[in-house]
């Protein structure tokens, strides 16, 4: 396969002065038989993937390997984060048949590990938590032995909504903190740092055997000391897995510009710092995203997973 610079996958005209992208930010052009089959399967079952909606730079690698992150509860989010390319607006009613279709897709792909995420559904008191519980149940029925990671919203810090998901016992409970407290309202105007922290803390209290996981985007304007402080906050809440990746501006007109590009050596340094803080697994690199190498993590760390 040929290599392309990630600049080529942004489509809007340049309206602000941007930092030049360094040479190491290159990804493979999505292609291949497995990639094409997976794309056809998603369309035939009216399913969405965060790989497509969020323009993930690893879509070629992951889809080529036959893995994907399913995006549930529609493709319209009730929040308007300044880094995300998923549409914001009033979502359609929940589709209670969606968990069945996702489980059927997992079986069709013969997956051994699957990641399930969703848009925010703040119009619902439960945030859509029952959909997560149902899809876990359906996948376990149709594809026994497949391990499951859920990347959930913060549910506005609701313990009741979180418990619905935790009672279904996913192998990994993931919620991304995304950035440092100083930048939260700029990056995620409807979110709260405290909601993120209490979600991860409560998940571990509810079931210590379920792995907890969180991720941070680098390059939004955070200082090094602020980044280390958030990492320590997560470690203090016994988060097991940490992902660190470079922020890339999805759309030059609608999203925050990149304030800084981190060198791969800095990502390596952060990985070592994270392991010293006590994280069991740190995935750190320019193109790392929340679901990157998720299957390896669950097989190495989960007490629930039975191969």
Summarize this, please?
The protein has 307 residues and is an alpha/beta fold.
Describe this entry's structure for a reader.
This protein is of the alpha/beta class and 307 residues long. Helix content is 36%, strand content 16%. It contains 11 helices and 12 strands. The protein has helices at 33-44, 50-53, 59-64, 98-109, 129-142, 159-166, 184-187, 193-206, 224-236, 264-277, 294-301; strands spanning 3-5, 26-28, 48-49, 69-72, 76-77, 87-88, 113-118, 147-151, 172-174, 211-218, 241-246, 281-284. Strand 7 (113-118), helix 5 (129-142) and strand 8 form a beta-alpha-beta unit. The radius of gyration is 18 Å and the shape is globular. The two termini are 33 Å apart.
CATH topology: TIM Barrel
Biggest sheet statistics: 8 strands, mixed
CATH class: Alpha Beta
> What is the percent of helical residues?
25-40%
Tell me the strand percentage band: 15-25%
- Number-wise, the strands total 12
Number of domains: 1
